[in-house]
């Protein structure tokens, strides 16, 4: 046979063999998880016949696998049926949603002293709107007359421009109580020469809302399964959560304030929203912004003032400084017990990193052989951590591991009494490196001696000292202070012709006199003013005018004096 013909045959085998079966180098790691084994007699009274089934009860933890080898008779080839516990998922239905942004607020104010040219009017600025931003409101308030030459009350008029910070857009969602789903992989392997071939594989999604689920497989052998599970220790609580567009990280929870679907509190995220047309809107914004905005005048003539907003979850832009006053919290996946959290069209799917045990009752027509594989571990490293929210855990990296590992924590190398004993389930099939997060009790608050060994292989135990890393509690920002600004108003508070005409009106002279002390001061000023005027008149009539007349008078000479 020539080389071209051999190459063609090899190519045909490569193309067509995978369509029939796929060669598997290793089976899933089979866990030693048998709990109880027996038999059940099923009798039919009408026919007088009984049928005997083999019954096995198996308990699996997350990422564990059960392997059963079945053989109907001695002439039939052996088959291995595997059931892998892949995932535990909570499917939270979405009850409602809305889009929102982080408000970037840029106030611009002018201060108008009383008595000058009018640049700030109540009619123009009170509950008015401006047009140079996506959202723009105008406010008017009476303020201190610091720096003014007149005694009347000054006025502050502001334009409040609001844009979405950095163009960010978020989607807030409200989730309800979840449905619980167990995800398994059911596979069948047949023995061929020295390898196992996978002849069948399917993903099974088992609902656990009713507590127990039953299903059958009849491909090669008749197998009946009944699956029940215990409750999860932790779960995502129903409530409000959010995700930023372009990201898949779900945020929220009790520590992140977020407005409900019908709320618009300015102390929580979500008070500036996008409507159905994609435009920004603030519910009752003209009133809320006016109440929330405060102006404190430093010098009205120099247009120096301080500004702040009551509330949270916004960005203040003063022109010279941008201050962030919001907290997006942390992603749900930062929790050690959450592996993934993704938002779909009408549901939020949370995959647990810890899971819960499941009980599986298996009925077969022939007695199966339970298979198990030895666990492996080459080495490990890690430390004990206390994070900023007081979560205490082992952060361990395992090298060359497969199967189940047993761990123990001691106070010293004498290993007299373990403080904690636990197990870790690693890779399902291949020997890999793996990072694991393991919760520990509060009594472990320092350096500890940590030991691991593969299940059923105590001689393979490896022990190491783990350092203790403690982080301080998360500090939350205090309320935002006043921010200094300078208004842009050239020529404001200049006294033009109109201002002088107004000041000549006697009705304006008594404005601002509200107490006896102010009246006494006014009378004293009037008396001093009249006395000063009389003094000036006396000086002019008695001294200045006569002296001027004397100095300007020209002497006259008579003709008689000339003749002489």
Automatic annotation (TrEMBL):
<keyword id="KW-1133">Transmembrane helix</keyword>
<dbReference type="InterPro" id="IPR029213">
    <property type="entry name" value="Fusogen_EFF/AFF"/>
</dbReference>
<keyword id="KW-0812">Transmembrane</keyword>
<keyword id="KW-0472">Membrane</keyword>
<dbReference type="InterPro" id="IPR043076">
    <property type="entry name" value="Fusogen_EFF/AFF_dom3"/>
</dbReference>
<dbReference type="GO" id="GO:0044291">
    <property type="term" value="C:cell-cell contact zone"/>
</dbReference>
<dbReference type="GO" id="GO:0000768">
    <property type="term" value="P:syncytium formation by plasma membrane fusion"/>
</dbReference>
<feature type="transmembrane region" description="Helical">
    <location>
        <begin position="519"/>
        <end position="552"/>
    </location>
</feature>
<keyword id="KW-0732">Signal</keyword>
<protein>
    <recommendedName>
        <fullName>Phlebovirus glycoprotein G2 fusion domain-containing protein</fullName>
    </recommendedName>
</protein>
<dbReference type="Pfam" id="PF14884">
    <property type="entry name" value="EFF-AFF"/>
</dbReference>
<feature type="signal peptide">
    <location>
        <begin position="1"/>
        <end position="21"/>
    </location>
</feature>
């Amino acid at each position: 046979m020539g080389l071209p013909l051999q190459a063609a045959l090899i190519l045909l085998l490569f193309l067509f063999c995978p369509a029939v079966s796929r060669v598997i180098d290793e089976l899933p790691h089979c866990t030693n998880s048998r709990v109880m084994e027996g038999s059940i007699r099923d009798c039919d009274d009408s026919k007088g016949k009984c049928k005997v089934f083999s019954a096995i009860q198996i308990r699996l933890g997350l990422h564990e696998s059960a392997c059963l080898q079945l053989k109907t008779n001695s002439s039939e080839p052996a088959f291995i049926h595997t059931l892998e516990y892949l995932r535990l998922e909570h499917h939270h239905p979405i009850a409602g949603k809305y889009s929102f942004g982080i408000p970037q607020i840029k106030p611009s104010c002018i201060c108008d002293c009383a008595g000058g040219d009018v640049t700030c009017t109540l009619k123009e600025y009170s509950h008015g709107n401006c047009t140079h931003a996506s959202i723009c409101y105008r406010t008017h308030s009476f303020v201190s007359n610091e720096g003014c030459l007149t005694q009347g009350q000054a006025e502050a008029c502001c334009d409040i421009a609001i844009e979405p910070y950095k163009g960010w857009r978020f989607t807030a969602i409200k989730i309800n109580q979840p449905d619980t789903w167990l995800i398994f992989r059911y596979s069948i392997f047949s023995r061929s020469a020295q390898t196992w071939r996978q002849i069948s594989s399917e993903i099974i999604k088992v609902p656990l809302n009713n507590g127990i689920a039953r299903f059958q497989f009849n491909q090669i052998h008749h197998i009946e399964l009944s699956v029940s599970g215990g409750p999860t220790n932790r779960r995502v609580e129903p409530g409000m959560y959010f995700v930023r567009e372009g990201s898949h990280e779900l945020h929220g929870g009790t520590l992140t304030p977020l407005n409900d679907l019908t709320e618009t509190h300015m102390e929580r995220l979500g008070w500036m929203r996008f409507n159905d047309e994609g435009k920004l809107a603030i519910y009752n914004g003209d009133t809320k912004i006016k109440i929330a905005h405060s102006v404190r005048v430093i010098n009205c003539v120099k247009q120096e003032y301080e500004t702040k907003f009551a509330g949270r979850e916004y960005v203040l832009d003063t022109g010279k400084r941008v201050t962030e006053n919001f907290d997006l919290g942390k992603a749900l996946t930062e929790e050690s017990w959450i592996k993934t959290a993704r938002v779909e069209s009408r549901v939020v799917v949370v995959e647990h990193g810890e899971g819960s045990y499941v009980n599986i009752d298996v009925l077969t027509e022939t007695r199966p052989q339970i298979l198990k594989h030895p666990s492996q571990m080459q080495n490990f490293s890690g430390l004990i951590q206390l994070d900023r929210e007081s979560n205490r855990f082992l952060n361990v990296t395992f090298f060359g591991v497969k199967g189940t590992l047993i761990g123990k924590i001691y106070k010293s190398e004498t290993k007299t009494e373990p403080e904690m004993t636990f197990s870790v389930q690693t890779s399902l099939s291949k020997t890999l490196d793996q990072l694991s997060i393991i919760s520990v009790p509060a009594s472990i608050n320092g350096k500890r001696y940590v030991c691991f060994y593969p299940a059923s292989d105590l001689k393979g135990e490896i022990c190491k000292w783990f350092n203790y890393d403690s982080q301080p509690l998360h500090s939350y920002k205090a309320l935002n202070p006043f921010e200094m600004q300078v208004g842009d108003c050239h020529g404001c508070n200049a006294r033009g012709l109109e201002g002088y005409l107004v000041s000549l009106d006697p009705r304006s002279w008594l404005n601002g006199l509200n107490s006896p002390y102010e009246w006494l001061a006014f009378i004293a000023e009037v008396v001093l003013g009249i006395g000063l005027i009389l003094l000036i008149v006396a000086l002019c009539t008695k001294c200045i005018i006569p002296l001027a007349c004397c100095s300007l008078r020209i002497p006259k000479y008579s003709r008689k004096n000339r003749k002489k």
